[in-house]
Specification:
Elements (H helix, E strand, L loop, with lengths): L13 H13 L3 H21 L6 H23 L3 H6 L1 H18 L1 E3 L2 E6 L4 E2 L1 H19 L12 H15 L4 H19 L2 H13 L1 H7 L2 H11 L10 H12 L11 H4 L11 H33 L4 H25 L17 H19 L11
Antiparallel strand pairs: 1-2, 2-3
Helix pairs in contact: 2-3, 2-14, 3-16, 5-6, 5-7, 6-7, 6-8, 6-15, 7-8, 8-15, 12-14, 14-15, 15-16
Length: 388
């Protein structure tokens, strides 16, 4: 068979495909996976303590371990995939995810007062989690296809706005303010890296500031209450302010070295709400203190730096924007969750990456890490490959 670099790799030769797959595997960024595994290991220790007094608590640890193991396999598989294939179907993936969000609005499952899940019988999916990655990929593809200019003009933001706004509206109507903010913020990070001018940035900031009263009136009552609770939690210490007050007590009582493993009073006396999901950082701070939280935050910082390094070494603009967007999304989730539990940001239900319990969150994070690793596998530091 005559070699043609435009042909799909599988149509060239199985032996050639195996050789290329082995080569890609050798370039896998194992340092990134090691950092992820270290964060997960800390998360498992904290999760074990958080669910120690709960019925069937051991099942949470076992299920989370299974989620992680499956997600690691998926991460490596995605990392070794074909870049051209990913780029080709980016808009299709975005469109299908948007359709799933519409289906959620029409017939999604309701849980805890929100309609966020789509029940497919044997599987329940949360399309809003999928949209966070679909949007980053779609924006990366769009700016990759555009001519590189010194700075983006206002007209250049029309298509990105058409990609962000419908998804944002559908997610916030579920309602899921936290995911909507994460998705829109990471999308804006891609636009920023793509080359927005300071003039457009300032205009956009002014528009956002001017629209705040409209957004405030658009929010649900409980969402407005969360914002007010951020500034005045003591006004309702047994109601809306209870969560943040108990969380701050747990974080502050940990001191330098913490109270010790399984010795956190706020945790084991059940004062902490959602201690195995949204407020798991409070458990870590109470039992392992400042040293424990510093260790976790340092690992998060290394993952973020690793992501930025991969972005700078990307082979093309698509890879650079994709890696930047994924790294920004990961960083935003870390900052928002920690800011939330220490009382610096409103409680919006954002889990702590790789630490909070939850299959959907774990899967989304690891798929995003797989895409990040994929950019690393195909980075320009490995030279030019005729099959890429």
């Amino acid at each position: 068979m005559i070699f043609n670099h435009k042909q799909p790799l599988l149509l060239i030769s199985p032996h050639l495909e195996l050789a290329h797959l082995t080569e890609r595997f050798s370039r896998f960024p194992w340092g990134l996976l090691i950092l992820i595994a270290l964060v997960f290991a800390i998360g498992m220790v904290v999760l074990y303590s958080a669910v120690g007094g709960m019925a069937n608590g051991a099942n949470f640890v076992i299920q989370q371990s299974i989620h992680f193991a499956v997600s690691v396999v998926l991460m490596v598989t995605i990392a070794l995939g074909d870049s051209k294939l990913y780029r080709r179907y980016v808009y299709f993936v975005y469109g299908m995810t948007l359709l799933l969000l519409l289906l959620v609005m029409l017939s999604g499952s309701i849980g805890m007062g929100a309609r966020r899940w789509l029940d497919l019988g044997i599987l329940r999916i949360q399309p809003s989690e999928m949209m966070k990655l679909a949007l980053i990929m779609a924006l990366s593809r769009y700016f990759h296809d555009q001519a590189v200019t010194p700075g983006l003009r206002l007209v250049d933001l029309s298509v990105p706005a058409l990609l962000i706004i419908p998804a944002f509206v559908l997610i916030i109507r579920q309602p899921d303010l936290g995911t909507a903010i994460m998705m829109a913020t990471s999308g804006c990070a891609v636009i920023f890296v793509a080359g927005i001018t300071w003039r457009i940035l300032l205009i956009s900031a002014a528009v956002v500031a001017a629209s705040m009263p409209l957004v405030w009136n658009w929010l649900h009552g409980y969402q407005r209450q969360r914002v007010m609770t951020l500034f005045f939690p003591e006004q309702d210490p047994l109601g809306t302010g209870y969560h943040i007050i108990q969380s701050k007590i747990a974080v502050g009582s940990g001191g330098l070295t913490g109270k010790g493993f399984m010795a956190g009073s706020q945790n084991h006396l059940h004062f902490l709400p959602e201690r195995h999901t949204d407020f798991i950082f409070s458990v870590l701070a109470e039992e392992w203190g400042f040293i424990g939280t510093l260790a976790l935050i340092s690992l998060y910082g290394l993952i973020i730096l690793y992501g930025l390094l991969i972005a700078t070494m990307a082979r093309d603009r698509f890879g650079m924007l994709l890696a930047s967007g994924i790294t920004a999304l990961f960083a935003f989730q870390v900052v928002v969750n920690i800011g939330m539990v220490v009382g610096l940001l409103p409680v919006v239900g954002i889990p702590l990456p790789l630490v909070s319990y939850g299959g959907s969150s774990m899967l989304t994070i690891m798929v995003s890490m797989g895409l990040l690793a994929h950019v690393g596998v195909h980075s320009k530091q490995h030279g030019s490959y005729n099959y890429h």
